[in-house]
Structure formats: structure tokens, C-alpha cells
């Protein structure tokens, strides 16, 4: 059941991603990182609820990277 919810979130996000990608295309790396960070939080929560430990770890690492870029703690590589 939780996998189905995770899958539906990804499918529903695709249409939003296409629209937002066009907006972000002209945006800065900081704005893009903020957008990615927000979505990673949702994905991490879903993975945690499904006890997907390795996926939670990887998503948390990606969150840290996106947060550091959005706060300009680390330059974009």
C-alpha cells in the first residue's frame, strides 16, 4: 500500500515538474536547489514510513546537498 502511494506521488509530480522545470530553467541554482529540497523532504518521509533505510539515507544526503546550495553554504559544482 505504501509503495502504491509513493508511486502515485511520483506520477502526480511529473506534471508539476514539467511546469516548474520551465520556470526553473531560467532560474538560479539557488532557486532550483530550494525546489529540489522541498520535494526531497516529502520523498524522505515516504521512504521512512516504508522503512526503506538505505533510500532514506541517500535522500537525506541529497537534502543536505540541496540545502547547502540553497543557503549558498557550498558553491554549485
Structural account:
- The chain contains three helices and no strands.
- The chain is mainly α and 77 residues long.
- α1 (2-25) runs antiparallel to α2 (29-49) and α2 packs antiparallel against α3.
- The mean pLDDT is 81.
- It is flat.
Helix content: over 70%
Number of helices: 3
Order of secondary-structure elements: HHH
Number of strands: 0
- Class based on secondary structure composition and strand pairing: mainly alpha
Span between N and C termini? 38 Å
Mean pLDDT: 81
The low-confidence runs, each spanning 5 or more residues with pLDDT under 50, are none
Query: What is the molecular shape?
Result: flat
Largest sheet, in brief, is: none
| Computed CA radius of gyration, to the nearest angstrom | 13 Å
Strand content: under 5%
Give a summary of the structure in a few sentences:
With 77 residues, this protein is mainly α.
Notable traits:
single chain; 77 residues; mainly alpha; 3 helices; flat
Task: Summarize the helices and strands and which ones pair or pack.
Blueprint: H1 2-25, H2 29-49, H3 53-70
Helix pairs in contact: 1-2, 2-3
Amino acid at each position: 500500500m505504501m509503495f502504491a502511494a509513493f508511486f502515485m506521488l511520483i506520477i502526480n509530480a511529473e506534471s508539476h515538474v514539467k511546469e516548474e522545470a520551465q520556470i526553473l530553467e531560467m532560474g538560479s541554482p539557488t532557486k532550483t536547489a530550494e525546489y529540489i529540497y522541498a520535494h526531497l523532504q516529502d520523498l524522505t518521509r515516504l521512504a521512512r514510513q516504508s522503512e526503506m533505510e538505505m533510500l532514506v539515507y541517500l535522500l537525506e544526503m541529497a537534502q543536505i546537498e540541496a540545502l547547502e546550495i540553497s543557503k549558498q553554504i557550498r558553491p554549485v559544482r
